[in-house]
Amino acid sequence: MDIDVRGPRFGAAVTAVVLAVVLVTGSAWLLAWQTLAFALGAAGGVGRSPYGLLFRRVVRPRLGPPTEFEAPEPPRFAQAVGLVFAGLGLVGYTLGPDWLGLAATGAALAAAFLNAVFGYCLGCEMYLLVRRVTVRAG
């Protein structure tokens, strides 16, 4: 079943704020929270992530009905990509090197920002590219 495109975009906005705070404060605990949020989104889909639940219960009822939908697989893949980068960032912040934490968190922030502000989901585009390549190869 397709999902309301505003949900993943809302989640990306919250994610961008969280990751920006991580970069400013260096908080490994906050990055651990974001890593968990990505893990839940990757495992259960964006609707089951904490930000997806917040969107569905608090934000969406205050908006008009959705006019645009998308398949759930690309945003779910994007959550898995975010999980990888947040996990690398967490390793960098907790075990070192510090530059790994900064670089991985910064990359995840850049992707979340692009989705939140411009509606361009890098992870979704990666999913579509992987699908095209595997279909041609298979």
Overview of the molecule:
By secondary structure, this protein is mostly helical. The protein has helices spanning 6-25, 28-44, 50-59, 73-94, 98-118, 122-137, and strands at 3-4, 69-70. The chain contains six helices and two strands; from the N terminus they run E-H-H-H-E-H-H-H. The chain is globular, with a radius of gyration of 15 Å. The model has no long low-confidence stretch (mean pLDDT 96).
Which spans of ≥5 residues are poorly predicted at pLDDT below 50?
none
- The helix count comes to 6
Order of helices and strands: EHHHEHHH
Structural class, from secondary structure content? mainly alpha
Overall pLDDT level: 96
The description of the largest β-sheet is:
2 strands, antiparallel
Count of individual beta strands: 2
- Content of β-strand: under 5%
Gap between N and C termini: 26 Å
Q: Which strand order do you get reading across the main beta sheet?
A: 1-2
* Envelope shape: globular
Radius of gyration: 15 Å
Helix share of residues?
A: over 70%
Topology of this protein?
Layout: E1 3-4, H1 6-25, H2 28-44, H3 50-59, E2 69-70, H4 73-94, H5 98-118, H6 122-137
Antiparallel strand pairs: 1-2
Features:
77% helix, globular, two-stranded antiparallel ribbon, 2 strands, mainly alpha, 138 residues, 3% strand
Gist?
The protein has helices at residues 6-25, 28-44, 50-59, 73-94, 98-118, 122-137, and strands spanning 3-4, 69-70. The chain has 138 residues and is an all-alpha fold.
